[in-house]
């Protein structure tokens, strides 16, 4: 484009350019807005009102900002499965799938990252979506949650602001799938309700080992209502049977480059191999009369319910046992919505949940092309559906007859509403009163006590990882003012945290740093999760002329313990042992990396080249730096000794196959060995 034409184009565009600096906030209609923090409610703890035109305009615009990709949770992968409750929960709910232990309910689960686009990497530091669609006999129920039990904001009206700050900055569309940039941390510093969620996001929870080893949470406070109409407040949990485990940050970054599909590949392969991921459903229950008995507001989505105070009752199990047949038709077209409920499950006045009840339907309308997204195969309920909705994009149902309204006499007033006794949904009759206000309850204003609770609950390695995460993220921020604001903010959480981070990024620690909160919740630490060698991948580094009989014994023990062994060598094909046995090579050093394995078993061979030894040494040293278990027999023992690794925690070297295998399996089950003297 010539300079002259460029000037004309600039003139054309000038009328559309907007410089918002120093201006007053208005709606799209030019109406000046007096409050942009709170949605309009019936009382400061009441439900959000439909007449809040500012909230609806802001959220509607946000919901429609991307087509066709999801605005958030664009990068996802899913699987089919089934859920079965252990025993009837009729004491709490009349939901059929939670009261009939003989019933297996089909489910579809979509895991996802939040910040990145559809083509981004899966092992970035981020919250993970954990959305479950239950195809019950009473209709679809969607439990739409995350792998973190709290959220950044307390009111849904701020959700567009959060995501705008988190996403790539609009002037240069960078960085992709990352929170390590100015606008995100500027939002955090100026919206201090985010403190608790940020602590989780800077922890190991934000870089999970796999979807199979990741907790899920409903985040919000919901209601369970039984047949007698009695209500209990409830929070939902998914507890992975394999425990909750993570990768280290250096490993996560390398995985992003080596295998951007690492998490989906892990899920796909585990199901294909019959190693079906299992999760137990847990509930925390608070009787309605105990709503105000805690030192936090149970409706605040930035707060969790400590498990030591309100125990998690494990009530059922979900098994993922079938991969999708077509990613687009199923994973991409599935439409979740927290408003998809069944009798016996209802909502609370959590202001973030209240906004989601509007937003999700609105988003599906634009993303899936109209109001008939429920007719797509992946979204169709397993029970019949009948109503007077007609036409629209994507309509598949061919309705017969002349009547499409209620009430009517021409069709004997059908379809007609179902009574409660017939399974008709009835909202819990909560008494609501209060002035119409844009406000937040005073009980929502404590932003730091649970952030400190989380910090106090971490093991020393976990605390070190959080310090490193803050230092990395803020080290990517250009604005020194934003850096200082964040340090000032998290000085309210921990003096140790603030001091370490400030030193790393050249900021000052406030004189009044620290917190008086001493309470902890051991359940929050991954140190207290399930530890097992099951489904762990072990990379076997081996060459020709290996000791066939002894290696076979070790491999049998590893497989009997539930591990998956994959052979790594310098070339593809078959390797021969000294007894004539053969091993198929799964990977070469060129096509694989140590970050793709949970543990390494190093055997070597009698005659290997210098390049083989060099590549094997790199694999072992990187696995060691990532605190992974390493086992060695035969020539591999000498390699460990040559590199002074043989006496380190989690490194097992031996000559007797049986004792070695037992010790190595135990090392694998521990996941990582943090007592190694390594700084990461």
Topology:
Blueprint: H1 3-14, E1 40-42, H2 53-63, E2 76-85, E3 105-113, E4 128-136, E5 139-146, H3 159-166, H4 182-190, H5 195-201, E6 216-217, E7 222-225, E8 231-240, H6 249-258, H7 262-272, E9 278-287, E10 313-323, H8 328-332, E11 345-347, H9 351-367, E12 436-438, H10 449-457, H11 460-475, H12 480-490, H13 495-505, E13 537-542, H14 548-560, E14 564-569, E15 574-576, E16 582-584, E17 587-588, E18 599-604, H15 610-625, E19 630-632, H16 635-642, E20 651-653, H17 657-669
Parallel strand pairs: 13-14, 13-18, 14-17, 18-19, 19-20
Antiparallel strand pairs: 1-12, 2-3, 2-10, 3-4, 4-5, 6-8, 7-8, 7-11, 8-9, 9-10, 15-16
Count of the domains:
3
Total DSSP E strands:
20
> What is the distance, rounded to the nearest whole angstrom, between the alpha carbons of the first and last residues?
50 Å
In the CATH scheme, what's the topology name of the largest domain?
A: Catalase HpII,  Chain A, domain 1
Helix vs. strand class: alpha+beta
The proportion of residues forming helix, as a percent range, comes to 25-40%
Q: Can you identify the CATH class of the largest domain?
A: Mainly Beta
| Percent of sequence in beta strands | 15-25%
Tell me, briefly, the overall form: globular
Q: Could you tell me the mean pLDDT?
A: 93
| CATH architecture verdict of the largest domain | Beta Barrel
CATH superfamily of the largest domain: Catalase core domain
Radius of gyration, Cα only, in angstroms? 28 Å
Largest beta-sheet details: 10 strands, antiparallel
Ranges where pLDDT stays below 50 over 5 or more residues in a row are: none
Number of helices: 17
